[in-house]
Amino acid sequence: MWAGCCRRLLPAALPARLVPCRGRKRRTDPPARSKAERLRVPTPVDPAELLVVQDRYRHYVAVVAALRGEFKEALLRRRYEEEVGSLAEERARTESEEHRRLMEFNQRENQRVQGLRDERLRQEAEAEAQQKHQAAASREKKRAEFLSEREREVLQLQEEVKSFITLENLEQRIEEALDNPQSYNFALDKEGRVAKQTVLQ
Fold this sequence. Notes:
Layout: H1 2-9, H2 47-83, H3 86-161, H4 170-179, E1 186-188, E2 194-197
Antiparallel strand pairs: 1-2
């Protein structure tokens, strides 16, 4: 009984730790042994006091019923006046005035928001135009650098072409190579200097 009550009261996410609690008795459980022979004794009632209480209760019910009737009648009367009476015209005029005022406020708000939107769009257009101008200038600068680099490479190749071996200067280059022999058999130290070189015979 005690463990079942604890399982019912504890959430499923909590650890299975039993918490001491007192459960309720079921309808089918037998009475306790200490109360098995107990007989229910009616509570004594004073007849004079009962008459006074009943009279006061009838008076209370009558007063509450009268108040409810008054309030309901006033509510129905006010609702009738608002729907078909003299207050209906006043309410319609008030609603019309409120609608007109709200429409004017809405128009002013729309104009203000439209001004802000136009200003934002103008700034965005200016920023986009400036960004496009900067991008075009950057592309033009890169193109100019690219062309200058290609021109420099072309000039360098033209200078290198002058030292190329052709059919016209082949014999002259052979004679220069034979007159000035070069040895490429050498060793370098850590500083890049020639440390040892084979002497040509």
